[in-house]
Write a structure and sequence with these properties.
Blueprint (H helix, E strand, L loop, with lengths): L30 H5 L54 H4 L8 E2 L12 H10 L18 E6 L1 H14 L5 H6 L15 H4 L2 H4 L17 E3 L2 E3 L19 H19 L4 H25 L1 H7 E3 L3 E3 L14 E2 H4 L13 E5 L2 E4 L40 E3 L27 H11 L5 H7 L7 H4 L12 H11 L8 H17 L4 H4 L11 H7 L44
Helix pairs in contact: 3-12, 4-8, 8-9, 9-10, 9-16, 15-16
Amino acid sequence: MTPRSDTVDQEHGNAGVCPFSGAGGERTVRRRSFLAGTLAAAVIPAVGSVAGTARAEDVPPTDPTAAPPVTDAPAETAAHAVGDPRGAEIAARVDRKLEARFGLMFKELPPFAPTDGLLTWLAASMNDGKAPLSDVKDSDVAFDNAGIPAGYIYFGQFVDHDMTLDKTPLTNRLQDPMAMRNYDTPWFDLGSIYGKGIKGSPELYDQDPARYGYLKVWQHDDLVDLPRDDVGAAYLGDPRNDENLIVAQLHTVFIRLHNKFMSQGMTYAQAQRQTRWHYQWLIVNDYLPRIVGKDVVSSLIKRDGTIKFGGTLYKPERPDNPYMPIEYSGAAYRFGHSMIRAEYEMQDGHTVPIFGRDGFEDLRGNRPIPANLWADWNYFFDIPGLEPPDDRNMARLIDTQISLPLFTLPSTVVAPTAKAIVALAERNLLRGKRLGLPCGQDVARAMGVTPLTNEQLGLKQPGWGGKAPLWYYVLKEAELIPKGRKLGPVGGRIVAEVILGIMALDPESYFNLKPGFQWQEKKTIGDLILLADALDPRSRIQAPEVEETGPLPLQPEEEINPEATSPVGSDTLVV
């Protein structure tokens, strides 16, 4: 890995399209252009329109039941969100039964291919039309998900980047553009944090011999930032974690957790293992139950001294090198798009839009964290011991209404060409068709779930043929059945099976190496932030003093190779 001072790192910039941000694609971006202030204007479109397209037929009819146009849209020229992670089009182009880096979970189901014009109309109908608020305290509670603070959506984005990171050398990817060979596995190993290890990614690590094994940070303006080069480009195992200021600061929490374990006397390998296992434990016990429900998680995990995965849908042919289902990456896990707010309160009384106009502050990344945009984590997570603020950022409900700013993605996100599609919903729907995804009803039937009809889904036009795009189906199902508080039976089962199935297949996960690993009950990401000493002292309400008990005694062990991919170390949990 080399510093990305001038261009997006081509070794990782094509790693995969993020279901939350849509980032990725084959584009080269001048890093100094970011820092020179070319964060272009995010022009707010008229309510109900799809910004960035000049076609009159893209505007929804006044009557939502009227038949939309059926002409195909012009070809997309930018790669963002409609572009492909390496090999994701295998199902559409090569073989629907093939498992490589990507593949289909439901291999026997036919692709659903409505016209582009129909998908464009549907996307436009998903615009909620609400401009960013100047203060989160004015939030419409009808849109807020009371059980999910907004930080969990960005934790979900962090998780996605960890799963879809592709560290395959560029030369190998060029020889295998459709990823017929699956070089990388989607393990939850925090590859974005650790890169290729101390020797393989030295720029991620402290070079002071006295701090061997510590991860590097950059401290400035009373905050802890990602390690950066002289023009502000971050050194990261996955550059996508610097695309958004919330994800970037969440990334620093895991760096600080690793360093905290190092400061307690652990070796590099022990600290790495503990950091990974805490992260994995939170995915299973805090994140997933909020997103899919505790009952779904419990139904898929069986404990009898071991942890066994009981899923029936996600069964890779090669358990040692599992594939990423496109039903998950191209549809179900994109539920997070509907939960993104138009704005976030970063500290008390300081609300910032996710995308702003040129010259105005917003939360786009790829720059040093501004001194006034540090995250008070009490506004994003429940922090033990702190009084919750009245105006905490809550995730939006999971439904078919998408925040208005996501209908005008800025030029730093989508290349500003004449045919650029800048509405995220339109990009998702067109991408699902391009990937050959099956329709939502076919997937439901294959899962043994009674499918929702298009009448129930609000798709009354005859052009749909009684079928719905899988991404839209997952969102509407959540909106109708759990009333938007969590994913429904189709979306929730796909997300849970893939995440838990991959965790169970990873020989280094706590499922397999230490099934008895338990953090105390009811621990959350807020507890992790405190454990990492990552709560900014300027937080709205000061955290209470946390008693430092120091590390528990480590067990005798064999000599550890810090560069080993399968470190052996203490199983002691330090809290």
